Structure formats: C-alpha cells, structure tokens
C-alpha cells in the first residue's frame, strides 16, 4: 500500500515538474514580445490622450524615475511635444483600483487640465465597470477639468452601476493631476 502511494506521488511530481518546465520555457520565449506589446499599448494610449492638444508623446525614463518613489502606482510618463519641440503636456500611465485593477493613461496639458483618458488594460467587470472605462462619452466628462483634484458626483458624474470604477477613474485622474503639480513645482511645467 505504501509503495502504491509513493508511486502515485512520484508520478504526480514528475507530471507537475514537466508542466512547470514547459510553462517556464514558454514564458522565457515570449517574455520580450509581451513587453514590446505592452509598451506599444501604453504608447498608443499616450498618443490618444495627447491628441487633443496636439502633441506627440515621448516616453521619459528620467521623469518616471523621479516620480515613482512618491507615486508607486505610476507606470511611465510621456512628455507631449508640440511641433516646435516644447512641452505641451504629459501623459501619465498609471494603475488605479476600481472594483478590480485598471491601467489607464491620463493626459494633462501645461495648464493642468485633463486632455483625455484612455484604458490600457481593463480588468473591470464586463458589462458594468468595463463599459464605463471604455466609454468615450463618459471619459470625455473629465476633459478640461483640473488642476484642482476632482470629486466624484460633484465635478464628474458616476457611472450608474459602476461606482467603484467611477471612483477608480477619478482617483487615477487625481493622481495624474498631483504628479503634474509636483512636476510644475520642480520647474518642469
């Protein structure tokens, strides 16, 4: 009986070890491709949120490194450049918590006004929060707001049935406005 249990345990261990090795190998083969696709999604979102001013986004590792110690939910910062090469605004790609986590880009112009919001990844509940985060009409309600922090149900409406998502979007916008203020105070404005 003991021999039978050990035999089954060994077989199970071998199956698990082969499966884990296969998953590890597969991930190591596609890791770089996943990172490139994620970077493309962030860049497209930054371009979308800066398109209203118009500005072309340039990712800034230096600004990201400077802001991340104070803002751990920041993923990256894009500087929006106008045709003359000057700073027209910023696109902050950040994580926020609604009902689930969401990654979004928030554009802020030189005056601290929101230029746009675009979802990079959306883990909100399909049919409820996901609809709010993907609704251009709803997200347009944030445009032109700032530089003062926004209050849900005062400055912007909540999406019916997706209050947590609405709070998460508003918190993400407020985080972007706070980072804009920090950059402005540091002479980056």
Write the layout of secondary structure elements.
Blueprint: H1 2-50, E1 56-59, H2 61-67, E2 74-81, E3 87-97, E4 101-109, E5 114-122, H3 129-134, H4 136-140, H5 163-185
Antiparallel strand pairs: 1-2, 2-3, 3-4, 4-5
- Main sheet attributes: strand count, strand direction, barrel closure: 5 strands, antiparallel
* Basic shape: elongated
> Could you give the count of β-strands?
5
Question: How are the strands ordered across the major sheet?
Answer: 1-2-3-4-5
- Give the total of domains: 1
Number of helices: 5
Strand content: 15-25%
Q: How far do the termini sit from each other? A: 75 Å
Helix content: 40-55%
Query: What is the CA-atom radius of gyration, in angstroms?
Result: 21 Å
Overall mean pLDDT score?
A: 93
In terms of per-residue confidence, which ranges show pLDDT below 50 for 5 or more consecutive residues? Answer: none
Question: Quick gist of this model?
Answer:
The chain has one domain (46-185).
Account of the 3D structure:
- It is a single chain.
- This protein has 189 residues and is of the alpha+beta class.
- The protein has one domain (46-185).
- The chain has 5 helices and 5 strands.
- It has a 5-stranded antiparallel β-sheet, with helices on both faces.
- The chain starts with a helix and ends with a helix.
